[in-house]
Design a protein that fits this description.
Layout lengths: L8 E3 L14 E9 L4 E7 L19 E5 L4 E2 L16 E7 L6 E6 L2 E8 L5 E7 L5 E10 L11 E4 L6
Parallel strand pairs: 8-11
Antiparallel strand pairs: 1-9, 2-6, 2-10, 3-4, 3-9, 4-5, 6-7, 7-8
Length: about 170
């Protein structure tokens, strides 16, 4: 899939058919961005609706989305939570969603390096999203798969941020 142009948000997953145990899965999603400087990706509560020309936190979606931007910001209710790495054009950005753990979580990666901030207590039903903010910008979903097991590389500096709460 490709981004559709300036200020156009594309929902990567809007409908997928999963086995009946939809609550018990791990998802790996990977992006490759190109020809742009500003872009973001993340997850959204399944109840979110995104309007053309609007950002992922607009129209009441700020509390319903987690947003990982090119400059390393990880946003939810609170904007600009620092600690995760920035990423540039051509780097692989990925998210692993673990719906089998308690609490459920999403962990972000840049070129297969786990980022220190991750989000726990994510909703039981989510969607992925990606957006670009520049003319002629694009992204490509290079992989989307169900994983059998999640292996974390977390170190002592990792920080769990709770969905639905303000972050420091």
């Amino acid at each position: 899939m490709l981004g559709l142009g300036e200020y156009i948000l594309l929902e990567i997953i809007s409908e997928m058919i999963f086995p009946q145990d939809v609550q018990q899965f791990l998802v790996f999603k990977q992006y490759l961005h190109s020809l742009q400087r500003k872009h973001g990706m993340g997850i959204a509560d399944a109840s979110c609706s995104f309007a053309v020309g609007k950002g992922p936190s607009e129209d009441g979606n700020k509390k319903k989305t987690v947003r990982y931007f090119w400059d390393g910001e990880l946003d939810h209710i609170t904007n600009i939570t620092h600690g995760s790495g920035s990423y540039e054009d051509g780097q692989r950005i990925s998210a692993i969603v673990d719906m089998t753990s308690n609490p459920r979580k999403v962990v972000f990666y840049v070129d297969d390096i786990e980022q220190p901030n991750y989000v726990i207590k994510i909703p039981s039903e989510i969607r992925f999203w990606a957006c670009t903010y520049g003319i002629s910008s694009s992204f490509k979903v290079t992989k989307f798969q169900r994983l059998i097991q999640f292996t974390s590389q977390r170190d002592a500096g990792s920080k769990a941020l709770k969905w639905g709460k303000s972050w420091e």
